Amino acid sequence: MSLLTVKNLAVGYESRAVAEGINFKVDAGDYLCIVGENGSGKTTLMKTLLGLEPAVGGSIEVGDGLRKNEIGYLPQQTVVQKDFPASVREIVLSGCQGRMGLRPFYRKEERKLSEENMKRMDIMDLADRSYRDLSGGQQQRVLLARALCATRKILLLDEPVSGLDPKVASEMYSLIAELNKEGVTIIMISHDIAEALRFASHILHVGDNIFFGTKEEYLKSEEGKQWIR
Fold first, then answer.
1. Are 24 and 187 in contact (CB under 8 A)?
2. What whole-number distance in Å separates Cα of residue 158 and Cα of residue 161?
3. 32, 203 in Cβ contact below 8 A?
4. pLDDT of the chain along its 229 residues, tens only?
5. Alpha helix positions (H), 54-102
6. Where in the chain is the domain with CATH 3.40.50.300?
7. What is the spatial distance between Cα 172 and Cα 98, in angstroms, rounded to a whole number?
8. Which of 116, 118, 114, 137 is nearest to 126 (CA)?
9. What is the pTM for the complete model shown?
10. Which DSSP helix (H) or strand (E) runs through 221?
11. Is the distance from CB of 4 to CB of 63 less than 8 angstroms?
12. What is the pLDDT of residue 80?
């Protein structure tokens, strides 16, 4: 069974749709890139998948034992978030909050998980540093480690390389691809179609026309031909 099945979904604000007629499914191990023009509804769609915005219409079915608190999320950063004064260790550990229920304190296994994910992202040497003092690439690694504390199944990433220089962006894409190879399902919004096509298994194109299919199918589609010129 698919992790997510989206049927005739309409997304927007205050019952006004900005994108509709969206149909796609995500299976375990997929790498889905969501592409489209600015303002086409990509971020709104992602927030709707996460339950942060209500759907205007249609349905989202969650399967394969996936629970809402098992979805890791890496949103676009705001200027205020980039200046957050907590330590790297504290931020990564906060990704475990979804599994704590009503407990006020972290357990040993949650602290162990946060350390494992800091090692996974190669940021253990930054553990006691203030998040606000890190470079953009280091901050994204911290947030990726935090998101991995919330899930072993699926990550939703909204423009994870926005504002990064090309070298650091390439490193981030490689990190995400490696996570996918390890079995983490990826859903990523990207404005960089070249990188999307390099790593993705499937493409969802959001715009006047909606396209969903494999990367190979997208390259042959009218949407793909218009987007890749």
1. no
2. 9
3. yes
4. 689 999 999 999 888 889 999 999 999 999 999 998 888 889 999 999 988 899 999 999 988 777 766 788 888 866 546 677 789 999 999 888 766 566 667 788 888 989 999 998 999 999 999 998 998 889 989 998 988 888 878 999 999 888 888 888 888 899 899 999 989 999 999 888 888 888 999 999 998 889 999 999 998 988 888 777 6
5. 79-82, 88-93
6. 1-66+154-229
7. 25
8. 118
9. 0.88
10. none
11. yes
12. 46
Distance CA 31, CA 185 (A): 6
Name 59's Cβ contacts closer than 8 Å, sequence gap at least 6.
6, 7, 8, 9
> What is the H or E stretch that residue 100 is in?
none
CATH topology of domain 1-66+154-229: Rossmann fold (3.40.50)
* Cα 6 to Cα 138: distance, rounded to the nearest angstrom: 34
Cβ partners under 8 Å of residue 140, min gap 6: 74, 160, 161, 164, 172
What angle (nearest 5°) sits at the alpha carbon of residue 39, between those of residues 42 and 167?
Answer: 70
Query: Amino acid identity of 37?
Result: E
Count of CA atoms in the C-beta half-sphere (13 A) of 140: 21
Structure tokens at 191: 């404005």
CA distance 137 to 41: 26
Beta strands in the chain (DSSP E): 4-13, 16-26, 31-35, 57-62, 71-74, 154-158, 185-189, 202-205, 211-214
Give counts: helices (H), strands (E), the chain: 9, 9
